[in-house]
Amino acid sequence: MSKHRPNRLAETLKEEISQMILVELKDPRIGFVTVTSVDVANDLAHAKVYVSVMGNEEETKASLDALNRAAGFIRSEIGKRIRLRHAPAIVFVNDPSIQHGAHIAKLLRDVGAADTADEDESHE
C-alpha cells in the first residue's frame, strides 16, 4: 500500500481531532491540549495521536485519561466526517517535546543571564 494515504489521513485526523478537542469536548479535566502529530498504521486501522498538555504532571495525566475515555466518541465522529470504510482506533499519547523545548529555552535564558552578570562584574 502507498505511504501517501496514511500520511494524508494523519494530517486530516490531526485537523479534525484538534477541532473536536477545541469545540466539542466539554470535559473539564481536559486542559490546554495541542495535537502535535498523528501516526497512522499502514492498514489505517490504528492511529496514535500525540498531544502536548500544558500543566503539571497531574494535569497531564488527567487530560490524557479524559482524552482516552473520549476516544470512542472521537472515533465515531471521525467516521461521520471523513469518508472511510472503518475509522481507525485512536490512542492518545503524551508528547513532551513542547515542555522539553520550554525547559531548554529556560536553561539558555539562565545561562545568558549568568553570562551578562559575569560581564557586568568583570567591567567594574
UniProtKB/TrEMBL annotation:
Localization per Swiss-Prot or TrEMBL: Cytoplasm
For this UniProt record, give its keywords in alphabetical order, as a comma-separated list.
Answer: Cytoplasm, Ribosome biogenesis
Which PROSITE patterns did the record assign?
A: RBFA
Domain of life the protein comes from: Bacteria
Quaternary assembly: Monomer. Binds 30S ribosomal subunits, but not 50S ribosomal subunits or 70S ribosomes.
PANTHER family for the chain = RIBOSOME-BINDING FACTOR A, CHLOROPLASTIC-RELATED (PTHR33515)
- What is this protein's record name? Ribosome-binding factor A
